[in-house]
Design brief:
Length: 417
């Protein structure tokens, strides 16, 4: 349209004013107009677009890719993606250009996620043109969800927790029973299987002797996350971490340590927008399920009190409960004490960040200081009740605590029934 209008205006002025130079200027525009009309696209373009990887980890990148086809006169394609929090784009402007070949063009925008969670990318505005920009086609894509798994912190432990009633796992049981690991030789008792008899030792001793074994039991690690609020500043995986960042990444680290080794790991959250429960299981698939669930944890917009972290009646056998919380609301400590009174080993991990500073408002700063003093007193009371409270320090954070729990679990104890 612009070329046609300009050509008509210039030709009219050249004829009226007798200006042959204006005819020379109008000639290319007239040629482009006629040529564009002769090569006018007859069909509509089609686009196939989406993310190459809809699930990634913090710091990793994926690509939005759009492929346009359906017209042999397609020349140039431009895609523009809007900016969104916790996403880095490449190119930084979010604009990518691609030249069509044989009527087909592919345009890509790289997206890097800097914080865990489930978020949607901004819509991508796509424009395609024919040569000389004679005809244009544009569309806007949908907002694609992108799941970003938290990057678990480095964690390792050499301590053995008291296991529960599973059938697999790398951790040796604290008591003898049916299994494959040799524990010693003892006298035959009623109920022992014939295949356990040690005939060589029996012949020497003059009586039947059997091989005793340790029970092949696994550790059930129950992860409980307090998502009632998020304290501190979150700057992504390369910067400062908030309390919920620390809880989610620590839970992922513990799950990645135990589940691939054959130990059962479960997950439960409280105080979040909706409760998240992952039943106990083992293996890499369980780690993926836990990471998917952790990515969807969001603090509740409403203040909730009295929400139990775990129902002691649902505990089957022995398990190790690891509770991760900033310990600002009293619900987490109340739930930990309740589980401890029912004989469930509990470890409370304090995830309150160190970088939290007092508010500029004097009254708010005073209230925060009073709450921290109350929190310190509550922690002392919980520790006096036999519930260990530790700070998350990565590798070796839970070694000494797990050893203490194992020694304590081997002896008699009184529980509330």
């Amino acid at each position: 349209m612009r070329a046609a209008v300009a050509a008509v205006v210039l030709i009219a002025i050249a004829v009226v004013w007798r200006r042959p130079d204006l005819l020379v200027l109008a000639a290319p525009m007239a040629v482009v107009t006629v040529w564009s009309l002769l090569t006018k696209p007859t069909g509509d373009l089609s686009i196939e677009e989406g993310l190459t990887h809809p699930t990634i980890r913090e710091g990793d990148a994926t690509r939005w890719r759009g492929t346009l086809s359906g017209n042999e006169h397609l020349d140039l394609v431009v895609a523009s993606m809007g900016d969104a929090p916790w996403f880095d784009r490449r190119p930084a402007s979010g604009v990518a250009v691609s030249q069509a070949t044989n009527g087909r063009a592919t345009v890509e925008v790289e997206v890097r996620s800097t914080r865990w969670g489930v978020r949607r990318l901004e819509p991508v505005w796509v424009t395609a043109t024919t040569p000389f920009g004679a005809f244009r086609w544009s569309t806007t894509t949908a907002r694609h969800p992108l799941t970003t798994h938290p990057v678990p912190t480095v964690f390792d432990t050499d301590a053995w927790a008291r296991p529960s009633d599973g059938l697999i796992g790398l951790h040796r049981s604290a008591r003898p029973g049916e299994g494959n690991e040799f524990a010693g030789i003892r006298s035959f008792r009623m109920g022992d299987r014939m295949r356990r008899i040690n005939w060589v030792r029996s012949q020497r001793a003059g009586e039947l002797q059997v091989n005793a074994t340790f029970a092949d039991l696994d550790t059930h690690v129950a992860l409980v996350i307090d998502a009632s609020d998020d304290f501190g500043v979150s700057e992504g995986f390369e910067g400062l971490s908030s309390s919920l960042d620390a809880s989610v990444r620590a839970a992922g680290a513990i799950a990645e340590h135990y589940a691939p080794r054959g130990e059962r790991v479960s997950l439960r959250t409280f105080g979040s927008e909706r409760p998240h429960i992952v039943p106990p299981a083992t293996g890499r698939a369980q780690v993926r399920r836990i990471l998917d669930t952790l990515a969807g944890v969001r603090p509740s917009s409403e203040w909730r009190t009295g929400v139990p972290a775990h129902d002691p009646r649902g505990v089957v056998g022995q398990q190790l409960t690891v509770m991760l919380s900033p310990l600002i609301a009293p619900d987490a400590l109340d739930s930990a004490v309740s589980l401890g009174r029912h004989g469930v080993p509990v470890i409370v991990i304090d995830t309150l960040p160190d970088h939290i500073t007092a508010d500029e408002d004097a009254y708010t700063a005073l209230a925060w200081r009073i709450r921290l003093l109350e929190r310190r007193q509550e922690l002392r009371m919980v520790q006096a009740a036999g519930i260990p409270v530790v700070r998350w320090r990565g590798p070796g954070s839970l070694d000494q605590v797990i050893r203490d729990i194992s020694r304590r679990a081997a002896g008699p104890r009184a529980v509330v029934r």
